[in-house]
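Contributing new records

If you add data, match the layout below exactly. Sequence lines come first and carry their own label; structure lines follow with theirs. Keep one chain per record. Anything else will be rejected by the validation script.
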Amino acid sequence: MIYNSLCGENISRLGMGNMRLPEKFGEGRPVIDFEKAQEIIDYAMANGINYFDTAYVYHGGDSEKFLGKALKNYPRESYKLATKFSYGANPDYKKVLQEQLEYLQTDYIDFYLLHGLGIGGNWNDFRDCGCIDYFMEMKEKGVIRHLGFSFHGTVDCLREIVAHHNWDFCQLQMNYYDWLHADTQKEYEIVTEAGLPVVVMESLRGGLLASLSPEAEAILKAAHPDWSTASWALRWLQRHPNVKVMLSGMSALEQIVDNVATCETDSALTDADEAVLFEACEQFRSNVLVPCTGCRYCVDTCPTQINIPEVLKVYNDHKDIPWTFMGLMRTGSKGKPMDCVSCGLCTEHCPQNIDVPHYMAALTDKLMPGRKK
């Protein structure tokens, strides 16, 4: 495993994201499959990963609890914990931090972040509620070692956040798809110029970049037959020197095995390889109708219990199949597209700013032509 310096700490290039842990059905809902998830954590520890990222809201609040149990048999100094304060989930930042320490079974957090700044104009809430001053007090006491933020917003909002406080680090959504088709490159330049080291989230864009279209994958295989599709995304990130940690939400053992193999040596793409990757990306983009990453921030707020990421995945995967067939697809969703009440809560919580009600209406029109809302 290659290690980088992040805030003076020796951190593995590959970080373990704990938002997409393997699940099973239990307690009337999907829950973390502890046995399979523990196997992934153990493999991470055995293979040099020492950065574990979670959040107060991941897996319905269970991710931190799982991680605290999963790491309890390892020496505390052998791993770094990163977790986040979500104002929208619970604005009582003092209570949240105390709960997180209990869930993670620790007395300090190595890397603490304000969660998802820029979503729905929430920066004002974080800025004005007093949490930054409090977290700085906790930093002075050693309860928090390094304070940063994760970001999903506009370029102007990012500039304001960067200028507001002397942050230790930041977490950006960064991958080659967003580099070409979003403001990612500009965001990376802003924080790099400000001297903020970057932890990358959505390295594989919620798994979207782990499996491309057949045409796009053929382009990549022609250049490097032995490379996995996912490894191209991680190799591309290695081209950027201010990227210190690449997070991947690995939900199966074969995923972490492949990602670890990619990060064991310096394997950054050459200029020629990047050109090949960008060609494949353009080919792939024509197949993506909705750029959902499957983060599930929208699911808990949906009043009709639509499993929005799964419905949108079907929408992407079956765009060329007769729409009546989609009514037979199993999405694990209690609510269906035609149940959408267009409340907009999903879009308000979406880091990608996807107009979910629009797509639910489009699906309804295809599945039930002539239906009146």
